[in-house]
Design a protein that fits this description.
By secondary structure, the protein is of the alpha/beta class. It is 32% helix and 23% strand. It is built from eight helices and 13 strands. The strands form three sheets. The protein has a six-stranded mixed β-sheet, with helices on both faces. Strands 1-2-3-4 form a four-stranded mixed β-sheet, with helices on both faces. Strands 11-12-13 form a three-stranded parallel β-sheet. The model has no long low-confidence stretch (mean pLDDT 94).
């Protein structure tokens, strides 16, 4: 069983502990695929971070635009400014944050991802993606995980890449894979897996990237539906 999330590892570990996915054979795809972690062995088995030398100017550009941006250490969210976006994100994910005057001094190692957040001005995120990130297309990929979160990772990183990598690492044919998703950062994963199960309350345009749409949403046993339909029942196939 694999948790696949855009969240940092520290947040994924909280969820894995809560639902008991720390047994042998349990893994976590975190930071949208930039880090793959063996939950039973307690070790990273794959990682591709964003170079700190690239992250620093991205922070500087976001600051000039008045846009909140953050990255991560192994234990904390890191940002140069305290903000509503930072505090809200930290509360949602249940992890602490640190602020400082210069992000370069706060990072002890290359981070796995950056995220720009705006709860009330999506156009500012789109402008940042268009005007700033477009200069880094050989180094970085960016995509939205929801209307307010612009995810920034190293080039080639996605949940889809991570699913393929993990299947290869474990010797599992991709034909035996089932993925569930509902947002833009799930598209590559839905397309990579043999069964791409799209939650019935997914963001607009996501359904076309999967081959199964759930009857129940992700707040009302939609994942249980997928597990019973495609994993526990022998005739559950696309």
């Amino acid at each position: 069983m694999v948790i696949s999330t855009g969240r940092p590892l520290v947040s994924a570990l909280i969820q894995a502990e809560r639902i008991g996915l720390i047994k042998e054979g349990c893994y976590a795809i975190t930071y949208n695929g930039a880090q793959i972690y063996d939950l039973y062995g307690r070790k990273t088995i794959y990682g591709k971070p964003v170079p700190a030398a690239v992250a620093v100017p991205l922070f500087e550009a976001a600051s000039r635009m008045g846009l909140h941006i953050q990255t991560y250490s192994s234990t904390h969210i890191l940002s140069e400014h305290d903000s509503h976006e930072l505090r809200t994100y930290a509360k949602i994910n249940g992890i602490p944050y640190q602020t400082g005057s210069h992000i370069g001094d706060m990072m002890q190692e290359d981070p796995y991802k950056l995220i720009a957040i705006s709860f009330d001005d999506r156009e500012k995120l789109l402008r940042y993606q268009r005007e700033i990130l477009s200069a880094y297309t050989d180094t970085l990929d960016s995509f939205f995980s929801n209307n307010a979160f612009l995810e920034i990772v190293s080039s080639g990183i996605s949940k889809g890449f991570a699913v393929k990598w993990l299947c290869s690492y474990l010797g599992i044919p991709i034909e035996h894979s089932v993925a569930a998703g509902d947002a833009q950062n799930d598209i590559a994963m839905l397309e990579a897996a043999h069964v791409g199960a799209v939650m019935c309350n997914a963001f607009p345009g996501i359904a076309e990237h999967g081959n199964y749409i759930t009857e129940h949403d992700n707040n009302h046993d939609g994942i249980a539906e997928i597990i019973h339909r495609f994993i526990l029942e022998e005739d559950g196939r696309i």
